[in-house]
Recover the amino acids of this structure.
């Protein structure tokens, strides 16, 4: 059984991503507001995105059906965020439409 965790410490930048109603609860294990990892180097992040549980788990189901990859929800968050960035962000759209360009999304299994 998953427990919805409530918003605690703020993780995302810019601050507007932390507005009420954006990511206030989640069930995807391993990500969220419960802690800020010591290895997070905020200065190295180019773009911050938040994904919902629904889009994360939809991406997991797609990976399972189309690629045969049995991954968890946080991997679905990584994939759904990357796909949204490629579709909606101006820089992402340019990259997605660049012939010969590749995008790599890491789905670590630990």
């Amino acid at each position: 059984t998953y427990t919805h965790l409530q918003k605690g410490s703020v993780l995302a930048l810019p601050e507007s991503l932390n507005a009420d109603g954006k990511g206030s609860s989640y069930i995807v294990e391993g990500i969220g507001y419960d802690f800020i990892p010591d290895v997070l180097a905020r200065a190295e992040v180019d773009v911050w995105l938040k994904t919902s549980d629904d889009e994360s788990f939809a991406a997991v189901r797609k990976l399972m059906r189309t690629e045969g990859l049995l991954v968890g929800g946080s991997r679905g968050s990584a994939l759904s965020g990357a796909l949204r960035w490629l579709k909606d962000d101006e820089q992402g759209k340019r990259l997605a439409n660049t012939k010969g360009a590749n995008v790599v999304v890491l789905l670590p299994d630990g």
User: Anything to note?
Assistant: Residues 1-10 have pLDDT under 50 and may be disordered. The two ends are 21 Å apart (CA to CA). Residues 73-88 form the longest helix (16 residues). The chain has three helices and no strands.
